[in-house]
């Protein structure tokens, strides 16, 4: 039994209190009255919370739009959030702000820190936070001597250095390598693999600052992309009191460099993976310098690397022609990395809390798990995961297109999935990471130097496993999985496991008082999404032990690929009018498959759960439609289920956000909602959508599982 209703919780609490009161020499009737008063208050508080949250959900909706015409607009048309930063905001980000408030509270828990033996680390964290609160964080004081000193220590800034700029001593590659130590993804866009030995891998660079620059928009000086990037560079250069003529020349030089650098991509002839080495060229000679600079000289098995040698050979030629522009671009990228991105001073404290929450992440998470993550919550979420796994298993059993042997392998894989609720536990490694905080230097009279130290510290933490791979077990997990206080969930192919992190369990994903219909539509869908990743086009290449192996028959695999292609074709037809580009269906197919599977599994699990409750006869009052609805919303339980799913993805987009997400494996929020519901037969039935309506098209619906 799980997802225990408020009424059942109160009954259980009541029984415990009565039992204790009998053993005490005092009036049982008085105890009963006290308990009754407490029960009434909790019930009243819950009812008020549900009314309030129902009103919030209703305020997001646009009732002038029919749900069958555009379910995203119906669910989210009036969702508006203050633009706190230069990045996209969606409803899921509200969890980040909830966790920021909790972070502030946790930094006062000195007794808890003492009990957990992290007092020294909490003290350093408090010192950084206080320094951040009193600093000027917006706009960035770009001309601070500490920033200029840092730029010169890793490279140069010709626009500011003037006659002292020496092109013969400049290496664009070495400066880029140094910048990765501060989290700057410039001309070396490095990331860390999620399996042992946790070595780096590389993607092609993104160009620009506030707006990713694409070849088809860079030549239009009146475009938003051009203006945002121009304004960003001008702001930095003006801080150094350069003349208008000089500023214009520097900005023009950077744009000229971008244009030629972007033209290299044409030579990849539209290949999906533009890092395929299409030409017979030798290994790009400078990679060894990257490992000397960024990984303390550590060298991994070079045969495993995918360096895009042809790309970097071509980029080297372009950089040689634009040396001064490249140096200026990289110098300003470093300043951009130090930016707070807050749009208003009223978000100053929130920004500082976010820095603590995302950098001292293992410390804050340890405090959070001790203070906020209860065994009751763990039990409830564990029960929900079990329900979702049952429905996934039923789908695998009922997939008629699977042959017997492939079905056996699929069911074996599902049976071997390991579920982690809250976080992955590795106390020894977690404590080691927390101890690293002692190495963070907070410079009392220079916040610029403190921020520099913080950025470098954050990168060293992210690289910790790779830097120490010879000292850690080969079965060590990625460090992300140790952080319970993050609003995320994962499926990990390497060991066939699913992770539901404790930080995810906040509205709009979860609240214990919600009706089950809403819980399954939000958290249930996300759990199903992650489970489905085990059986998408990537997950299906791994078996139940996490080994990469082809366990498919040729016949079943052919049908699998045909069904997956349906998602590619469907999403590739969505045009984003704001940028006049279509969704990249092939790049986003696995996330779209996971959305569709997660939504279908979650509704099936909800229906199964309700049938179990009815059959058991327990808690019958909670089974009425009214108790499965949200006060103030005239929706059936299953309509509420779909509304909860859609409202996870309510978002405010600027033009640059659409461009950025074109390079993302996730479809833009609006279209992931529309794509999921328009391929869901149950949605059309629940909202009574006529065949041929936008959300119930006549074309055959995509379904993998």
From TrEMBL:
Query: GO cellular-component terms in the record?
Result: plasma membrane
Q: Which GO terms describe its molecular function?
A: metal ion binding; metalloendopeptidase activity
Keywords linked to the UniProt accession: Hydrolase, Metal-binding, Metalloprotease, Protease, Signal, Zinc
Q: Which cofactor does it need?
A: Zn(2+)
Pfam families, per database record: Peptidase_M13, Peptidase_M13_N
Q: Where in the cell is it found?
A: Cell membrane
Main localisation, per the record? Answer: membrane
> Start and end of every Peptidase M13 N-terminal domain?
67-422
Q: Which SUPFAM superfamilies match?
A: Metalloproteases ('zincins'), catalytic domain
The record places domain Peptidase M13 C-terminal at 488-701
Q: How does it sit in the membrane?
A: Single-pass type II membrane protein
The residue range of the signal peptide is: 1-25
Q: Name one GO biological process term.
A: protein processing
Q: Which family does it belong to?
A: Belongs to the peptidase M13 family.
Name it. Answer: LOW QUALITY PROTEIN: membrane metallo-endopeptidase-like 1
Specify the species. Answer: Drosophila rhopaloa
